[in-house]
Amino acid sequence: MANKTEVLVIGGGAIGLCTAYYLQRAGRQVTLIDKGPIGGACSAGNAGLLVPSHFVPLASPGIVAQGLKWMFSRKSPFYIKPRFSLSLLSWLHQFRAHCNEANVRKGIPVLHQLITESMNLFGELEHEEGVQLERKGMLMLFHSLKGEQGCLALAERARRVGLPMAELDRTALLELEPNVRTAADGAVYFKDDAHLDPVAFMCQIEKQLRGAGASVLGGTEALMMERKGDRISRVATSAGDFEADEVVLAGGAWSPPMVRDLGLNMPVQAGKGYSLTLGGSPQAPTIPMILSEEKVTVTPLGDSLRFAGTLELAGLDDRVNRNRADAILSIIPEYIPGFDASTVASHAIWSGFRPCTPDGLPLIGRPRGFSNFTIAAGHAMIGITLAPVTGRMVADLLDGTTHEAMPALSPNRWAAKESRRAG
Predict the structure, then answer these.
(1) Closest CA relative to residue 14, chosen from 147, 193, 178, 196
(2) Residue 247 contacts by C-beta under 8 Å, 6 or more apart in sequence?
């Protein structure tokens, strides 16, 4: 006999947890499943940044040319693993087509609105659920003319959308954060950015869900979704079948294989990132920072420092590419004296898959032809930041309210483009 629930949420990362949270607050009876431990995938080891500063879509001018240059550097922050994959080739073609100023101008208002709403929701979670935030801003450091130009261009865009920020020379940088240990000529300081411990955050949401009666099942893999007419009639899992009035897919980079049998195109590629968390030093920074040229993030998490970075398109291959990880490890001695990268085994380096769309906007909404199925995925590097607003949007959608940003985020936008090309 199938397990029955009102809403089945597939995916136990930050997006799935927040979706379940807001559904439950809306009065829904929720079951949340994940094939691994709850909160144990991409959300667990990321940099923990909440970033109003990240309002520019990943697909932007110049990134393709820069990516091609990085491809020939052994320790570059970007890498595409050579392999024959029609889905990857299609994704790269679409990504390249979106790397233009028109896509940026279209995407900035959408992302800025979503991030602003999500930060407000984090404030509510801080007050109502005891979620711990560190509101210290974020520094984007540069040490080259090109790096400075990129940071200042971002600062100018930030001014246009009204983000509070400051441009700092090295003297002002060291006055604000004396424990900068890397060479830097200056920085842009984004005052509204914040950070948190992602594992602690997800544990808090999971605790609330369980306490309010939700069924939260780790180690329960969704194997197949069965469609009858315009509905998902059954979800087969490793723990038996589920029948639900509504099904929400929040599986991150693992979402595309789940929808193929439903005849849906979901252009999401897994962008693998790495991190290493170590005990800090007495001179550890207190403000998170992004080293803009190296694309490495340094985040203080209590008594530890987390170093994170890279974007590796290698499919769902969880093996650590040591060359890419070494780019992160080479930064650590500047902050933790005596650190020896050669003593770090590859299995000790965390890796996770960030779900990236070709236009840099997430996929949130109902696929065409379905009346009880919703997708919430494709949040790339800002999944933690957008988790609360995504969860609330899904809960509102199931109650019949459509957020004004939904058309730009619709999972159907790719099918529409394919139809136009075919015509």
Answers:
(1) 196
(2) 7, 8, 10, 225, 232, 235, 372, 373, 374
Q: What is the pLDDT of residues 136-187, one digit of tens each?
A: 999 999 999 999 999 999 999 999 999 999 999 999 999 999 998 888 999 9
Amino acid 27 reads G
State how many domains the chain has: 1
Give the position of tokens 């995407």.
107
- pLDDT tens for 372-422 read 999 999 999 999 999 999 999 999 999 999 999 999 999 999 764 443 443
58 lies in which domain range?
A: 3-422
Model confidence, pTM: 0.94
Read off the tokens for 198.
């992602």
Tokens for 313? 């398109």
Helix (H, G, I), strand (E, B), or coil: what is residue 155?
Answer: helix
Closest residue by Cα to residue 59 from 380, 338, 385: 380
The CATH number linked to 378 is 3.50.50.60
**CA torsion through residues 317, 320, 325, 326, sign:** negative
